[in-house]
Design goal:
Oligomer: single chain
Number of strands: 6
Order of helices and strands: HEEEEEEH
Strand order of the largest sheet: 1-2-3-4
Radius of gyration: 13 Å
Number of domains: 1
Structural class: alpha+beta
Shape: globular
Largest sheet: 4 strands, antiparallel
């Protein structure tokens, strides 16, 4: 992930930072604001920038969002347990675009 791409993610989540594990690239998104209908919830999140656990990309959350998403599962990434719904076929691209695609499941 280049600096320009990270800078655009920081427009959405100011604390964003890039990380990697086992050759996989991630973006850490602390205190990410997620719009769900008429409300906004805050979750720590981790965005995989490439294929992970059988999906083209994943947005992992610190805890599920009740009533949003389907088939929630847990995964251990970067030494932490994360939650994610079944949401596949996010097109590869800039991190901001991938994040926006993932966030659609919660609207």
């Amino acid at each position: 992930m280049d600096a320009a791409d990270l800078a655009t993610v920081k427009d959405i989540c100011p604390g964003a930072s890039s990380m990697s594990e086992g050759g996989n690239e991630f973006v850490s998104l602390p205190s990410l604001k997620i719009t769900t209908g008429n409300t906004t919830v805050t979750r720590n999140a981790l965005l995989s920038l490439g294929p992970h656990s059988g999906y083209t990309s994943r947005l992992y959350l610190s805890e599920p969002i009740p009533g949003k998403g389907q088939n929630w599962t847990t995964h251990t990434v970067l030494g932490r347990t994360w939650h994610t719904p079944s949401w596949n076929n996010v097109m590869a691209g800039r991190a901001t675009e991938m994040l926006q695609q993932h966030l659609r499941v919660y609207r």
